[in-house]
Amino acid sequence: MTHKLPLVFLACLPLIASAQVQPSPADTIPEKMPFDVPYGMPVSLDKAEAMLNASVAEAKKRNWKINCAVMDSGGHLVSFKRMDGGQIASIDIALHKARTAVKFRRDTKILEIAIQSNPYVATLDDVIASRGGLPVIEADKLIGGIGCSGGTGAQDEVVAKAGLAALPK
Q1: Residue 12: pLDDT over 80
Q2: Which domain holds residue 61?
Q3: Global confidence as pTM
Q4: pLDDT by residue (tens digit) across 13-35?
Q5: Is 129 within a domain?
Q6: Does residue 6 fall inside a structural domain?
Q7: Inside any domain, residue 112
Q8: Could you tell me the pLDDT band of residue 36, with boundaries at 50, 70 and 90?
């Protein structure tokens, strides 16, 4: 009995080698590092509390039940608030959003968008591709992250932005 499969495979090699490979957006090489914000000193408890109070006030104004967390520049919890009736699952999600914003130095919304065109993003450790996580930047340094969860991604993002806007100068 002769084995014809290897001969067929060898005959196809020139076709495989000549196939056109389409360029991927991931092959683009930017001139500068994206999101190259240096890590700074950790956000203080007072600043974290001011941000969380503003986030909760925004959520109350809209009658949303949200959980919000602030992490320091090392991705460790500084403060957390869970509104009455806030979804239990959203406790961990808020923590994860804040940590992701710190670790990746970008809004989690950017990861949400990126995962739609670049599925490999889902393979990265600690990615949460859902809006509502924002890096906290002061004096051009990343000092922490705020993450909110309990509503839709858009609602979570509104509440997180309200907290970020209240960052004491």
Answers
A1: no
A2: 45-165
A3: 0.82
A4: 555 555 566 676 667 888 888 88
A5: yes
A6: no
A7: yes
A8: confident
Domains in the chain: how many in total?
1
Task: Give CA 119 to chain center in angstroms.
Answer: 15
- ∠ CA(157), CA(133), CA(27), 5° rounding? 110
Mean pLDDT of 42-57: 98
CB neighbours of 166 closer than 8 A, spacing ≥ 6?
A: 50, 51, 53, 54, 55
Residue 91 sits in a domain whose CATH number is 3.30.450.150
Q: 54-80: per-residue pLDDT in tens?
A: 999 999 999 999 999 999 999 999 999
Question: Which of 130, 91, 88, 85 shows the shortest CA–CA distance to 107?
Answer: 130
Strands 77-82 and 133-138: unpaired
Q: Match 């060898």 to its residue by tokens.
A: 10
* Residue 163 burial (C-beta neighbours within 10 Å; 0-12, 13-18, 19+): buried
Instruction: Please state, as a whole number, how many other Cβ atoms lie within 10 Å of the Cβ of residue 126.
Output: 11
Rounded to an integer, what is the distance from CA 20 to the centroid of its chain?
A: 34
DSSP symbol at 120: G
Residue 34 lies in a domain: no
Contact 136, 74 (CB under 8 A): no
User: Which single residue is written with the structure tokens 């503003």?
Assistant: 54
